[in-house]
């Protein structure tokens, strides 16, 4: 499928955030190996400045103008039911490499993305320059203080439940989710009586080829907030265009409001969530990922 010049330019242009990450890594290298003081100063100044930045409507319009989701052969958002407009938590899977299904569907009109507040790790938002771009696009930190504030206000939030570990598990042609040890989101949803929605993006794991050796080591690195993925496509860090990106939002799971939920209560609703995620996948996989089983870690 032919891509417009606008889409091509936008898709390649916004890869410069990768250069920022490489630059940040080089600064860390110089700091550790050569103990250069200017690195410390630059890091601190950059991070302080980024904290003061907020969502920019101008930057959002600029990025959306490129219509980067049209880079893929097919892009579709499916809602099993009409989601609530408040007090909801949308839990996205799989993480993939860039979380395209969550981030680049953001602000799509007449869908649950329209008023969604996407939350990202504090680490990602603090990376010099790259974190600034995410902040300007409207992403906020997923740390407990901010999550509690938003849920208390009744906001609709989107989180990537599997985190770095789920990204590390990314493998072309397979659908893997990291959820067995992820229960914190259930605890916060119970505290505020939040409705949770499982969301799955078919095609997320088919954008890149990945190196899959030393999986245990790479998962161990994730504990220190270190990236454990090695990926590539025919266009280096640009996703494969011949991919269908289908994001399906499942049925909402109503949670009771329990200010201090016990472990047994958290475990109960965690199991209900996993069941809901599996039902969502099993319903739509025959159409969008035939003969590809869901692997749960």
TrEMBL record:
Coiled coil: none annotated. It is found in: Endoplasmic reticulum membrane. Pathway: Lipid metabolism; Glycerolipid metabolism; triacylglycerol biosynthesis. It comes from the Eukaryota. Its main location: endoplasmic reticulum. Pfam families: DAGAT (PF03982). It is a multi-pass membrane protein. The chain crosses the membrane at residues 7-31, 37-54. One of its GO terms (cellular component) is endoplasmic reticulum membrane. One of its GO terms (biological process) is triglyceride biosynthetic process. It is an enzyme of class 2 (transferase). Its EC number is 2.3.1.20. Keywords: Acyltransferase, Endoplasmic reticulum, Glycerol metabolism, Lipid biosynthesis, Lipid metabolism, Membrane, Transferase, Transmembrane, Transmembrane helix. GO terms for molecular function: diacylglycerol O-acyltransferase activity. Belongs to the diacylglycerol acyltransferase family. This is diacylglycerol O-acyltransferase.
